[in-house]
Specification:
alpha/beta; 2 domains; 9 helices; 32% helix; globular
Length: 300
């Protein structure tokens, strides 16, 4: 009908709602707001205190009373402090500019990590990985993810892997990187169903669904993992204490001669994480450091 508005046209005005919440409630925060926002993004902003920041992008002015009711329910359900939400008015140009500014393409080793807003072709010879800005956790910007990508790129210069596990996959960026480096099978698992769904979306975007399987798993206690042969490469970018707790499980599931890439730890936590894995018969092969963050490459 002439003069009808284009239903796919972008809004000229956006609103952004921002709140911080404890990690215990982070897994269900996205589901709580999916129906009222165009996009929901969450990322850990205070790892020491387990605090996540969430941003809701809305095409219409949100009902802040409704936002508060949902936050109250979320905090009550998980027994965490009630977050305070802030509302920001954004023009379309401001939003697109902020995405381009806050999520520029990253060159990490041979990897070129970018969002869909980047229109330029990847540099010649690079390995392109597309991760949307909305899935900011595991976008390559954090020092732990950066170091993991550097470690994988370094390992690829020396050997190949055919059976790979990404434990705590987040956005799936490391599983995608492994699939693009080696022509093997990759299992990507996370305790958070939201992370697994984000990973599945990113697998499709990067055309590696034939190589990578994403599944929910509480650590190594999953039938998917138990049905697999021992892995010749295990990647685990989580936190120091879970890494230490998982050390026996990692050692059990790592094939003889296998390699483990461990990240999510501060340099001050390196010795205790390394000690837990040395007790399981693993030894340090190499370390990668970015600012205060450390990634360990171990062998057995």
């Amino acid at each position: 009908m002439p003069g009808s508005p284009n239903p796919f046209a972008q809004s000229e005005q956006y609103w952004r709602v921002v709140f911080t919440i404890e990690a215990a409630a982070a897994g269900t925060a996205e589901e709580a707001f999916n129906d009222m926002a165009l996009a929901v993004s969450g990322f850990e902003t205070d790892e020491a205190n387990h605090i996540w920041t969430f941003e809701l992008l809305c095409g219409d002015a949100p009902d802040m009373d409704d936002v508060k009711r949902r936050l109250m329910l979320l905090s009550s359900l998980h027994g965490v402090a009630m977050p305070e939400a802030q509302l920001h008015k954004l023009a379309q140009q401001d939003w697109l500019a902020s995405v381009a500014r806050d999520f520029p393409p990253l060159a990490i080793g041979r990897f070129y990590v970018h969002g869909s807003h980047v229109k330029e072709a990847p540099p010649a010879g690079s390995i392109a990985i597309q991760v949307e800005a909305g899935a900011a956790f595991g976008s390559g910007e954090h020092g732990t993810t950066r170091c993991c990508l550097e470690a994988l790129d370094d390992l690829a210069k020396r050997r190949a892997f055919s059976n790979i596990l990404d434990m705590g996959c987040g956005s799936g960026i490391l599983a995608i990187a492994a699939a693009k480096l080696w022509n093997g099978k990759v299992l990507a698992v996370d305790i958070d169903p939201v992370a697994v769904r984000v990973t599945q979306d990113n697998l499709a975007i990067n055309r590696v669904v034939q190589q990578v399987t994403a599944a929910v798993s509480d650590g190594y206690d999953s039938d998917r993992i138990k049905r697999c042969d021992r892995f010749d490469l295990i990647i685990s970018n989580i936190l120091a204490r879970p890494l230490m707790a998982f050390a026996p499980d990692l050692a059990f599931n790592l094939a003889p001669g296998g390699v483990a890439v461990l990240s999510g730890l501060l340099t001050s936590q390196e010795k205790m994480v390394l000690s837990a894995h040395r007790a399981q018969g693993l030894r340090l092969h190499k370390r990668f450091v970015h600012k205060e963050w450390c990634t360990l490459v171990l062998t057995r």
